[in-house]
Each structure stands twice: as structure tokens, then as C-alpha cells.
Amino acid sequence: MLNKYARAFFTRVLTPFAAFLLRRGVSPDAVTLVGTAGVVAGALAFFPRGEFFWGTIVITLFVFSDLVDGNMARQAGTSSRWGAFLDSTLDRVADSAVFGGFALWYAGKGDDNVLCAVAVFCLASGQVVSYTKARGESIGLPVAVNGLVERAERLVISLVAAGLAGLHAFGVPGVDVLLPVALWVVAAGSAVTLAQRVVTVRREAAEADAGQAGDGPVPGPPQGSAHGTSQGSEA
């Protein structure tokens, strides 16, 4: 849901900036790479030390690259399969760094094995949620469901909570509980979303197989694609 409305809003806001970068000869791929590097650096440099406020500030400055690069490609007329693949792949890297940073904090000075496990679950489930949609589409199914918690929701909930929890270091009381609550919410929402997508793919696959039953054998996936890479951007 946030994907739809937030992207539309920020696309309008960031269009002039994207045009400025194009005039300076910056490529969309360069923006994608720099943005991902910034998110990874911010997450892994600050979050494992419990510096959630500053980590969130750094990540927020770079996370908008995910909107800027696509905007640049459309303005330049250079949208490509490679660009979509690179963007989607590096999104997974950035997400892993964010939740990996949380996990490292709770495995270390945060000293909470349960929340460490929840953060790891958020990391893993986010990857699998993305994979289910990409894999379903790769075998010709529409996967006509987004689910309860998409990538935008996962990041917004986690980063807003982390930034507010980081205010505890400045003497704001009670805010340190926000990050644990957010991680549980993201974990539960990701589990529900995964179930929604698996059920949808199962239904669509059954319908597709039934429709092909009278036309001869159902063709399998292309040779060597059983563990192929996913395509397209997720949610």
C-alpha cells in the first residue's frame, strides 16, 4: 500500500533532482550503487553499536536513491532489464544490512537473544517474500496479491521505530521499546504476507494447470531454471 502512494508522491518531489543528476552526467546505475552502499554503511556502522538515531538519519539520506534511479532512467529513456535486475538485487542487499544491523546489536551489547532471532527472521522472511512473487512471475503466474507488509512497510516501520528509539540516547524516556515492538510487528506482518503469496501462487498454479489439461502435457520450467534468479522489483 505504501509502495503505491509513497512512490507516486516522492516521484513528483524527486523528479527535479533526478533531472539535475542527468544533466551532470550521472547514470542511474551509479545512483543505485551509491545509494545501496550508503544504506549498508549506515546500517552496519551505527546499528550494531546501538546508535539508532544517527544510523536512521544516514540510511534515510540514501534510501531515496531507490526512487531517484528509476526516475532518472525514465527521464533518459534508458529503462532496461539490467537496471531493473540491479535495482531489485541491491534492494535485497540493503534490506539485509538494515535487519542484520539490528540482529548484531541484540546479539552483542543489546543482549537479547529473542530479539536477535526476531531480527534475523525479519531479514530472512523479507527475502523469501520477495522471492515468492518473483519466482511465481518467472513461471508465468500473475501473483495478483501484494500482501499485508511489503518492502516499503517493512522499512518505514523499522526505520521510524529505530530513529525514535535512538532518541533514548538524548534523554527521551520510554522510546527504547519502540524498536522491539516494530520488529515483532514486521515479523508477524511478513509471515502473513508470505502466507498470502504462497496461497495465491498455489491457486493461480492450479487454475493454470487445469486450463492446460486439455491441451496436452503441462510444460515445465525452462531447463536449468529450477533455482534461477528472480526478476523484477518487489515489494
Automatic annotation (TrEMBL):
A CDP-1,2-diacyl-sn-glycerol binds at residues 29-32, 70, 74, 80. Contains a di-nuclear catalytic Mg(2+) center. Keywords: Cell membrane, Lipid biosynthesis, Lipid metabolism, Magnesium, Membrane, Metal-binding, Phospholipid biosynthesis, Phospholipid metabolism, Transferase, Transmembrane, Transmembrane helix. Its cofactor is Mg(2+). It catalyses: 1,2-di-(9Z-octadecenoyl)-sn-glycero-3-cytidine-5'-diphosphate + 1D-myo-inositol 3-phosphate = 1,2-di-(9Z-octadecenoyl)-sn-glycero-3-phospho-(1D-myo-inositol-3-phosphate) + CMP + H(+); a CDP-1,2-diacyl-sn-glycerol + 1D-myo-inositol 3-phosphate = a 1,2-diacyl-sn-glycero-3-phospho-(1D-myo-inositol-3-phosphate) + CMP + H(+). Mg(2+) 2 binds at residues 66, 87, 91. The active site is at 91 (proton acceptor). The keyword Oxidoreductase does not apply. One of its GO terms (cellular component) is plasma membrane. GO terms for molecular function: magnesium ion binding; phosphotransferase activity, for other substituted phosphate groups. One of its GO terms (biological process) is phospholipid biosynthetic process. It is an enzyme of class 2 (transferase). The chain crosses the membrane at residues 52-68, 155-171, 177-195. Mg(2+) 1 binds at residues 66, 69, 87. InterPro entries: CDP-OH_P_trans, CDP-OH_PTrfase_TM_dom, CDP_ALCOHOL_P_TRANSF_CS, PIP_synthase_PgsA1. It is a multi-pass membrane protein. Residues 206-235 are annotated as: Disordered. It is found in: Cell membrane. Pathway: Lipid metabolism; Phospholipid metabolism; phosphatidylinositol phosphate biosynthesis. Signal peptide: none annotated. Its EC number is 2.7.8.-. Catalyzes the conjugation of the 1'-hydroxyl group of D-myo-inositol-3-phosphate (also named L-myo-inositol-1-phosphate) with a lipid tail of cytidine diphosphate diacylglycerol (CDP-DAG), forming phosphatidylinositol phosphate (PIP) and CMP. PIP is a precursor of phosphatidylinositol (PI) which is an essential lipid required for cell wall formation. Belongs to the CDP-alcohol phosphatidyltransferase class-I family. This is Phosphatidylinositol phosphate synthase. It comes from Streptomyces pacificus.
